[in-house]
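job 3f2a | input accepted
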Amino acid sequence: MAYNEAETRYFLIDTVLRDKGYDKPQHIKLETPAPVDPTGPKGRRGKGAGRADYLLCVQVDDMPKPLPVAVLEAKAETADPQKGMQQAKNYADCQRFAVQYVFASNGHLYFEFDKPRGLQSGPRLMADFPSHPDLRARYAKDNGIDLAGSDAAMLFQADSPAWAQSRHYQDAAIRAAFLKIIRERQAGRTPRVLLTLATGSGKTIIAANLLWRLGKAGQLSRPALFLCDRDELREQAYSKLKAAFGDNARIVRSERGGNAAQNARVHIATYQTLGIDEAGDASFLTEHYGVDAFSVIIIDECHRSAWGKWSEVLTRNPNAIHIGLTATPRKLKESRRVSKEEQADRDITAHNIEYFGEPVYEYSLAEAQEDGYLAACEIVKRKASIDSRVFTREAILKAGVKDIKTGRPFAEADLKAEYTGRDFDDELFIDLRTPVMCADLFQLLCENGGPEQKVIIFCNREIHADRVAMQMNNLYALWCEQNGQPRKDDYAFKCMGGANNGADKIEIMRGSGERAFIACTVDLLEAGVDIERLNAVAFFRYLQSPIKFYQMVGRGTRIHEETGKYKFWLYDYTGVTDLFGADFITPPPRSGGGEGGEGGEGGEDDYDDGSPVPIIGGQRVIMHKQGHYILVSRDGRETPIPVDEYRREIITRVLREAHSLDEFRALWIARQKRRRLIEHLLGDNYNPDAIRSFDQMNDFDLFDYFGQHGYHARALRRVERGEEYARINSAWFSEMDDNAAIVLKGLGAQFAQGGTDALETTALWEVPEIRQAGGLNALRVLGAPAEVMQEAKARLFGV
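job 3f2a | predicted structure (799 res):
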């Protein structure tokens, strides 16, 4: 019998790798978790394992850690090793794992993709596979690096003991950064590096291990600076950096007239604590740090952190390595002609690509979801009927406009000429719009897991957040009364900056499952706040900026194993999900500094200043369903696909494999063919379990789901099919040996519980009544057990 993929690795490929000098440290088994899928209210881990390949590494002398340079994909012994070796896929693998070469082998032959040359070659005999010394020399030549040189030492350092279990993409990002540092130095340039990874992928752990490795390689002759723009980001960074560096990681602050971080190796600061303001002053920075005080500066959330004159910290350290971390690299939109000085400032403060260069490593939300590291996403879109209307000044006056704060009539002079949907609940309030939207969202929460979920609602402004919190609390109180449930504290709350404005409840929301469920905010929770248990993100706010949108969506992407959260819901009331896949391009900053590049959208500084805000009543508001979507990867971009289209694509692929119900039945009962079909669907980013769940057919086996939607066959629930199998085949059972009949009847009961998969697992033969009847051996009186099982499955799926 031919070896499957795992057996091929063990019996054929491992032997060759050892003979070629790749001992255990030099060939690392690369395993990812099972992918996540959006089945059920919280999602789940997919069935089976994730990716399982090899990372081939090269070693230099007794350096602490080998350097990954290639991916080797193992195929089953009888598979064509060239299958799946498309150049685009190979290039993507090189990017994702930060390697130069991709190999694929079935244990006998291998194919190769050489990224530096862009060439694919093969087949070749595994006996001719490149040896460890040959691959090391080739890698050094292709990259122009002396692997035994002092600069290359950073490539061979191990992670900090505190973060030794880093994920493959975190290690890949660090290696990609080091390669650019080495190349820039060879070219006589000061290194500038940009790393782009999805929110929730652990960029701060990357920073900690990157600095640790640089230190071990002797590259931190002066301190390192981790720079961010929010206290929450600073505290999170301090927690992770302190785990690695202990007391050698300190927060920059004034202490007894000095700098509390003075003697530390890693300094952690916000721009504000360095005394930098928008006028360009940098009092603490200039008082406590000289020019070129740092070896390395890591800029967190660099898409926004260096706006205005805050670039002072960079320009004072021109010889330091500058590393930008972001999920959303900003590109600056072209504008009027500017002076060289103005352009230089814009380049350093706004245009990440211009300043740092193209990202040396990118890891998207879609990739992280495919690899099982970030939560899946299900999208529900709604639209308020009134949002399509335009209100003129005359119409608003006729409707009896008042000031929402005082109830007094609103002055005509204070009204704009007209207001559109983007202005509602911001510049113009419609009295029923917020209550109707909140009622709809609350109903969705009840349908999709219950009202006591952790949710962030992004609102337009502070008075909007106040009103949304009030409505959600009232809906919850009524629900508790109707369902005889005790009310829990702080169900919905406004969450803004400043004292007594709800920010103190963030920690409760993060840590407690019994309080603080719904946070109504504008921008405060946009970035830097990790709430792993967050179940949903809702948008009551219009957005134009893809950067803001991705940062906001990122609040929900983290997996929370403790509560079984593998999916988050995205409730879109304003069409913001159209921004998925958009380029991160924004207008230039306003003159005088400030973050004007967010499409004119309000920020957390947009607190109500006491000016009147108009509100009108007497308007009918109806919520319209705009569709149900699944977020998938298309051409490397996150793309919401309507459920109907998703279903149609899956069924189309099934019909290509089997043109009739009889052909499909024959495919389904042939275990290997059925598994290949499922693998092909999953490989194309189509999850049949997910679409079955969306169609509320979890009680049906996939055979019946595909039968109904693809071949218009009558669908039976698993229990119904199991019972029909036993009833229709009673004469067949009565004619055979009693023990064989017990075993074969038992198949119907097991199918009723677990579907087709339950018939193809070794656990089937451990079911007590089946085991006591003799299990597989009991079938031998009827013929070869495999053939008997095939006949039984044909009867089961033929009812």
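job 3f2a | Residues 654 and 677 are 8 Å apart (CA to CA).
job 3f2a | closed
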